[in-house]
Amino acid sequence: MIELRELTKRYGDQVAVDGLSVRVQPGVVTGFLGPNGSGKSTTMRMILGLDAPDHGEALIGGVRYPELNWPLKTAGALLEAGAFHPGRSARAHLAALAASNDIPASRVERVLRIVGLSDAATRRAGTYSLGMRQRLGVAVALLGDPGVLLLDEPVNGLDPEGIRWIRDLLRGLAAEGRTVFVSSHLIAEMALTPTGWWSSGAAGCWPRQPSPNSPPAKTAWRTRSSGSPRRPPTIAE
Ligand SMILES: Nc1ncnc2c1ncn2[C@@H]1O[C@H](COP(=O)(O)OP(=O)(O)OP(=O)(O)O)[C@@H](O)[C@H]1O
């Protein structure tokens, strides 16, 4: 489970994330919806210890990410496609990560198969299309077989078949009991991918039992100071 408590981030005078509190439960795909610039990536980065909150905290299984013993085995993340050495093949990139994170080498071939890159595994990542780089990013996230997955805009760059693939993959990972937290600025995508829905409350947000017939409800979470012209992100599960 991911737990955010009063998570707040300011850049100068600008409040990017404002008192965000939520529990992201395992077993369902939880969508994090909001327009560009509403604080989704900042929230993800704070969960992963890449940005320090000005107030509040983000916990993964009760522990802050920087304090995890083997982070890749606990929480896998896709933040930005293309963050790979362009001269290195997908297989070499994954093998290096596996070796430095106490992950069995057998996981490399396994995740290459899962993301559909086995046939392109020896090609340099710099020659990959955006969709292929996105798949390699997903492979990195899955490498440690983590119980928690965070994916920032995972459908970016994917073609229609790729989008169907990632929807099925995320649902499958959640069905295995993992916590799957996915951001998007696309309302339609969030309506199709998440496996359940959230009920809302002023002081907290708790998932009801997922119902396949229920429409996704969106619960507003403040991630900006009042007066901002932009809408805050919403959470749909
Ligand atoms: N390092 C930074 N320095 C200054 N401002 C920042 C920084 N990172 C983010 N911001 C600002 O914080 C706000 C939230 O940005 P963020 O990238 O988290 O939004 P987002 O919802 O992920 O947007 P997008 O959908 O475009 O990725 C934006 O106004 C952005 O300009």
TrEMBL record:
GO molecular function, one term: ATP binding
UniProt KW keywords: ATP-binding, Nucleotide-binding, Transport
SMART domains: AAA
Gene3D superfamilies on file: P-loop containing nucleotide triphosphate hydrolases
Region (Disordered): 203-237
Domain ABC transporter: 2-228
Top-level taxon: Bacteria
InterPro entries according to UniProt: AAA+_ATPase, ABC_transporter-like_ATP-bd, ABC_transporter-like_CS, P-loop_NTPase
Family to which this protein belongs: Belongs to the ABC transporter superfamily.
PANTHER family from the UniProt entry: ABC TRANSPORTER, ATP-BINDING PROTEIN
Record-given protein name: ATP-binding cassette domain-containing protein
Organism: Hamadaea flava
Source lineage: Bacteria, Bacillati, Actinomycetota, Actinomycetes, Micromonosporales
